[in-house]
């Protein structure tokens, strides 16, 4: 409002705005708490890894990692 007069707000209008802001803030905090809970993060990570392992590329990576682990175990057993 350029050069205009800002209308006066009643105490009730201000109180409603405050309550609305509090509700929005509470919802935002609840969402952040839910998204960042350690159990939720672990579960999301597990689901993501499972989905990746179902792809051909994921299966190839898992096979390569498994082969590397077997190779390292065999080398260690032979040294002892």
Instruction: Give the uncertain stretches in residue-range form.
Output: none
Total domain units: 1
Helix tally equals 3
Q: How many beta-strand runs?
A: 0
Strand content: under 5%
Question: Rg to the nearest angstrom?
Answer: 28 Å
What oligomeric assembly is this protein in? single chain
Given the helix and strand composition, which structural class is it? Answer: mainly alpha
Q: What key phrases describe this protein's structure?
A:
mainly alpha, single chain, 80 residues, rod-shaped
SSE layout and pairing:
Elements: H1 11-36, H2 38-53, H3 56-79
Give structural notes:
Helices cover about 80% and strands about 0% of the residues. It has about 80 residues and is mostly helical. It has one domain. The longest helix has 26 residues, at about 10-35.
Offer a quick outline of the entry.
The protein is mainly alpha-helical and 80 residues long. Helix content is 82%, strand content 0%.
């Amino acid at each position: 409002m350029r050069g205009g007069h800002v209308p006066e707000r009643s105490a009730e209008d201000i109180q409603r705005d405050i309550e609305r802001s509090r509700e929005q803030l509470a919802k935002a905090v609840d969402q952040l708490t839910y998204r960042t809970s350690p159990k939720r993060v672990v579960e999301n990570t597990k689901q993501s890894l499972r989905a990746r392992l179902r792809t051909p590329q994921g299966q190839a990576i898992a096979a390569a990692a498994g082969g590397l682990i077997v190779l390292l175990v065999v080398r260690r057993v032979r040294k002892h």
